Amino acid sequence: MSMDTDTKTENDAAGCATLQPRNESRTKTNPKAANSKPRTLPPYHVLLLDDEDHTHEYVIEMMRALFGYPIERGYQIAKLVDTHKKVIVFTTHKELAELKRDQIHAFGTDIRVATCAGSMSACIVAAE
């Protein structure tokens, strides 16, 4: 038996091989990327759309529950949506805007109005 076979480790005896580390880096660094700031996401508006089936109290409660707005801000939004038929209630990146729109759609009916069939409507639009 030669000396080489006598000095094998247990891993070598099991047929495992060990690779030597490379001196070169596997990832290339971009000098521009290292000095640049993270890119900001484009903003989107969440628009609340008016209808005749919801009271100002409903809008105030919804704005407080979904956005944490105080009563005064909720009342301002309720008046604006009533007069302008739509109002921007929130501006954020697209993913969160979609979530907030969906939360408005799922908020439920206005118990103060007997003919209310469901939640208010909302949509998102790119902020310009």
Annotation keywords:
128 residues; alpha+beta; Ribosomal Protein L30, Chain: A; three-stranded antiparallel β-sheet; 6 helices; elongated
Q: How would you sum up this structure, described in words?
A:
The chain is of the alpha+beta class. The protein has 6 helices and 3 strands; from the N terminus they run αααβααβαβ. It has a domain at 43-126: Ribosomal protein L7/L12, C-terminal domain/Adaptor protein ClpS (Ribosomal Protein L30, Chain: A). A 3-stranded antiparallel beta sheet has the order 2-1-3. Helix 4 crosses helix 5. The chain is elongated.
Secondary structure elements and pairings:
Layout: H1 3-6, H2 10-13, H3 31-35, E1 43-49, H4 56-67, H5 71-84, E2 86-93, H6 94-105, E3 121-126
Antiparallel strand pairs: 1-2, 1-3
Please report the distance between the alpha carbons of the first and last residues: 80 Å
Q: In one word, what is the shape?
A: elongated
Question: What average pLDDT do the residues reach?
Answer: 85
Percent strand: 15-25%
Percent in helix = 25-40%
**CATH superfamily grouping of the domain at 43-126:** Ribosomal protein L7/L12, C-terminal domain/Adaptor protein ClpS
> What's the CATH topology name of the domain at 43-126?
Ribosomal Protein L30, Chain: A
Largest β sheet strand count, sense and barrel closure: 3 strands, antiparallel
**H/E element sequence:** HHHEHHEHE
Radius of gyration: 30 Å
Question: Any idea of the CATH class of the domain at 43-126?
Answer: Alpha Beta
Count of DSSP helices? 6
Question: Would you report the number of β strands?
Answer: 3
How does CATH name the architecture of the domain at 43-126? Answer: 2-Layer Sandwich
Spatial sequence of strands, sheet with the most strands:
2-1-3
